[in-house]
Amino acid sequence: MTSPQHLPGGDDPPRPPRQPPAPAAPSGAEACARAWTTLTAAHARIADHLTVALARHCGLSINDFEILLRLEPAPPPGLRLGELRSAVRLTQPSLSRAVARLSHRGWLARASAPDDGRGVLISITQDGRQVLRRAAGVHAQTIREFLLDPLTPAELDLLARALARVADT
């Protein structure tokens, strides 16, 4: 007689099906790529909504808004174009065109730098401040709707802390 654990002919009793192996954790490169694509997709989505909202309600591009926002706290007589460029992240020709356009609309003032005959100082006008106040409300509403509201308070805190750490490096 054969034992129940070993069948004649060398066949073993059926075994329970094997569980599939757990998925491997993504490699460093895969995790990096996933984080980057997620960040850029979220930024693009929110930037698209901001572009539409600022143009519709204020007649501003995102870059126009950034320029006004950076100039608003600047003490008189304003900022040099180079100082503004480092804050706004536009090329010199693009920034010059944007400043000319905003000046033409009466939202910025341009003046010669007293210590440099070729230098130009840029400042925000009262009309520019009014447009910026309206745009800041549109910006806040759009950011709230598409970035903040979908997150829990814990997620918001984590996002703020993580981005602050990245921004400080």
Strand content: 5-15%
Give the helix/strand class: mainly alpha
Note the total helix count: 6
Rough shape? Answer: elongated
Major sheet: arrangement of strands: 1-3-2
Kindly state the mean pLDDT as a whole number? 88
Distance between the termini: 75 Å
Q: Report the sheet with the most strands, covering strand number, pairing sense and barrel closure.
A: 3 strands, antiparallel
Q: Would you count the extended β strands for me?
A: 3
Q: Write down the secondary-structure element order.
A: HHEHHEEHH
Helix content: 55-70%
Spans of 5+ residues with little confidence (pLDDT < 50)?
A: none
| Rg over CA atoms | 29 Å
Structural write-up:
This protein is mainly alpha-helical and 169 residues long. 60% of the residues lie in helices and 10% in strands. It has helices at 28-58, 62-71, 81-88, 92-104, 126-148, 153-168; strands at 79-80, 108-113, 116-124. The protein has a three-stranded antiparallel β-sheet. It is elongated.
Which terms summarize this structure?
single chain; 169 residues; mainly alpha; three-stranded antiparallel β-sheet; 60% helix
